[in-house]
Structures are given as C-alpha cells and as structure tokens.
Design goal:
The protein contains 9 helices and 5 strands, in the order ααααββαβββαααα. A hairpin with a 2-residue loop joins β3 and β4. It has 2 domains: 124 residues, Beta Polymerase, domain 2 (2-Layer Sandwich), CATH 3.30.460; 68 residues, no CATH class. A 5-stranded mixed beta sheet has the order 1-2-5-4-3, with helices on both faces. It is an alpha+beta fold.
C-alpha cells in the first residue's frame, strides 16, 4: 500500500462504504440518496468493482438534482460497459462513453434516477488512488476539521454555482486549478489543515487574480 493510499484509507469516505449504510445516519438528502441507490441495486451490483460514493452528496453538500457519483475499479472496461448497458440501458437519459481520465482509459455512464442523477465511472486503478476519491477524502478531512462554519461557507458558494472543489479552494485562498490545489493537502497532517482552516474559514476568499 502506498503512503497516499494509507492516508486516504483513514477517511470516513472509504471506511464507511459498507452498503452505503452511512447515508442512513446523515441528512434527509443523504437518506433519500440511500433509497435511490438501493432501489437500483447499485451497492450490490457494483460491490465487485469496489464502488465508492464520492462527491457532494457523500459529504452532505448536495441536494435534490445532485448526481450520486460512484467510482469503480475495473480491469475489463468493455465488459463493465456491457454490464452497465444491460442493467441500466433502459433508464431515463442513460448514456455511456469511453474517455480518458487523468490519461487513463475509463468508462463513464449516467442516467436519471428521479431526484438524483446516477454517475458511474470505472478505471483500471484502485478506487483509493482515483482522483475523485482522493479529492473527496481531502474535502472530508477539511469538513471534519472546519466544522459547521466551513461547511456552511462551502454550501453558500455551491449555492452560487461553484463546484465543491472550487468552493473549498476559494475559501482556503488557493489560486490555479482547484482540484490540484486540494490534492496538495492530501498528505498534510491534521495540524497543518487545522491552521489553514483557522486562518481562512469564514473569511472572504482571496482573489486569484
């Protein structure tokens, strides 16, 4: 296991992926998300692909209309795409494409599940090493350190149209690519994140101009 994987493995985002049960202890939106995931059988269907729920809803930063994004570890991309077509091809708005994510071949699929969209991505890479999972783990740590003050500041920016990554990055005073900036914090000890959040959370974001 790499040092990075060890650090991410400490995050509740990965530790709590046990049939998405952690959503039941969350907000009303998260409980609704749990019901949708169970209705489509996604935790069971994707269990063999080490699926992890990532992004806004997993961190209780999403609402109705948000996507429930699932990151998967897939060796046979063509076979994975066939599985998704067979299971969800008749769902409203279903589509699936092959693309590169961080230079790696991958499968990305989406369909409309009513109150939420369902996004499923598969890469030939352990989920804990995938960029979306790594970003979610960093954001999870920041929220645990920053508490409700940071969370509400992030939600305020999301409400203005920012992505979670952009919101965190702006509040912490970063410039440049938000995702890359947040990943720079991945191996930082909690004491460093605590100092950063204390210095920035609740203050107006620093201009990147």
């Amino acid at each position: 296991m790499t040092e990075t994987a060890t650090n991410i493995g400490e995050s509740a985002v990965l530790a709590n992926w046990e049939g998405v049960e952690f959503l039941l202890g969350g907000s009303a939106t998260q409980r609704q998300a749990y019901g949708v995931l169970r209705t489509f059988g996604l935790p069971d269907v994707l269990a063999r692909f080490d699926a992890v729920l990532v992004g806004a809803v997993s961190l209780d930063l999403g609402g109705e209309g948000s996507d429930l994004d699932l990151a998967c570890n897939v060796q046979d991309l063509e076979g994975f795409q066939r599985v998704l077509k067979d299971l969800f091809g008749d769902a409203p708005g279903f589509w699936t494409i092959r693309k590169r994510i961080d230079g790696r071949h991958s499968v990305v699929s989406w369909f409309n599940a009513g109150k939420f969209g369902i996004g499923i991505s598969g890469e030939d890479l352990p989920v804990r090493d995938q960029t979306r999972v790594r970003l979610t783990a960093v954001e999870d740590r920041l929220l645990r350190i920053g508490g409700e003050l940071l969370k509400q500041s992030v939600l305020d920016l999301i409400g203005q149209g920012a992505s979670p990554e952009s919101a965190f990055s702006a509040l912490l005073g970063f410039s440049g690519d938000p995702g890359e900036a947040l990943l720079e914090l991945e191996m930082a000890p909690d004491i460093v994140l605590e100092a950063l959040v204390e210095a920035r959370a609740g203050r107006p974001p620093i201009s990147s101009d």
